[in-house]
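Worked Example 4.2. Consider the chain below.
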Amino acid sequence: INIDLSSIWFIYSMNQLPTDSALKDRIFPIMVPGYSLNEKIQIGAKYLLPKNLKIKGLKETDVVISESAMGYLINKFTNINNKGMREIETLLKNILNKIHFVVNNPDFDISFMFDKKLEFPVNITTKMIDKFCKKQKVNPSIQAMYL
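Applying the procedure from the previous section yields the following structure tokens:
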């Protein structure tokens, strides 16, 4: 089958401009700004958290995170230059997985980590975020790779 692609527009996203000059000459980049910190906080609290709670089979009232705690999570544990939401969603998934495990396994003793036993509803605090997340150092030679 012969298909003439000369009149077709391909729209795609990329993290950086290509280095190949032939491809570079044929693309028209449209730069789209990323989300601001306030937008990330709103998206995280109002969309990503409820979405991932539903995936886990939990109710929206089972785990609550304030806007200030969401801002803390974003500021402390994500690359502030990253304008997207993937990293934030991954952090939220990890926190929810840990909370779900701890609450549903009462024999698992983590009392040394928290002031009281975790049970639903859980109000995520900055102290909890510090205990559930850790800042990862990325080797600069593999910084552009997905880990």
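The longest helix spans residues 37-56. Helices lie at 21-26, 37-56, 67-77, 86-104, 126-132. Compare this with Example 4.1 before moving on.
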